[in-house]
Design a protein that fits this description.
oxidoreductase; NTF2-like_dom_sf; 27% helix; disordered C terminus; six-stranded mixed β-sheet; Aromatic-ring-hydroxylating dioxygenase beta subunit; SnoaL-like; dioxygenase
Length: 189
């Protein structure tokens, strides 16, 4: 049984777009400016509400803002709706962002901000690479719940601890790209 290119190409396109979204989240959480820049076309526009401008410039801005204001971050994407149209794709992706920060009261108090929204993106494939051409971040809801001490019952200090730079454990395994590679046997011929 063989799979024809017309049926395989949309699956590969969706996988490549998904990888771009994963690289973005990894780049933000690891404070990796270069990785964040790699998800945008040079002429792209990013509208994050509080910041609008060229996509590649957002990388420097968000890393500076988050490293100054958040102790840790986790960006997780969920539902992805991808509508392909040749070399463009309209994409809606649900995002949950968790920002752990000091409260700024001079003590050791910390807060957890939770943001739920969507990335509404126009992707374009240029020179064989899918990247974001336009992004608007849509806010659905957010909250700052009461923070209680960890109660996992596990010695959390025995786990590998995440870092916000390329010394993070994941870089030892995945390297700097963060992109899952499509094995040669799965590439369209």
């Amino acid at each position: 049984m063989t799979i024809d290119d017309d049926r395989l190409r949309p699956l590969l396109d969706r996988a490549e777009i998904h990888d771009v979204l994963m690289r973005y989240c990894r780049g933000v959480d690891r404070a990796d400016v270069e990785l964040i820049r790699s998800v945008y076309h040079l002429d792209s526009v990013d509208d994050h509400g509080y910041w609008t401008g060229p996509g590649p410039d957002f990388a420097e801005f968000i890393v500076g803002r988050l490293t100054a204001n958040a102790l840790r971050t986790t960006h997780a994407v969920a539902n992805e709706l991808i509508e392909l149209d040749g070399d463009t794709a309209r994409v809606e992706t649900y995002v949950f962002a968790y920002l752990w920060r000091a409260t700024g009261d001079g003590g050791s108090a910390e807060a957890l901000d939770v943001f739920a929204g969507r990335y509404v993106d126009l992707f374009a494939r240029r020179d064989g690479q899918w990247r974001i051409a336009s992004r608007t971040v849509v806010h659905d809801w957010s909250c700052t719940p009461q923070v209680l001490p960890p109660g996992f019952g596990l010695p959390l200090d025995t786990f590998a601890q995440g870092t916000r730079d390329r010394s993070d454990h994941s870089y030892g395994l995945l390297g700097t790209s963060g992109a899952a590679q499509v094995p040669p046997s799965a590439r369209a011929r």
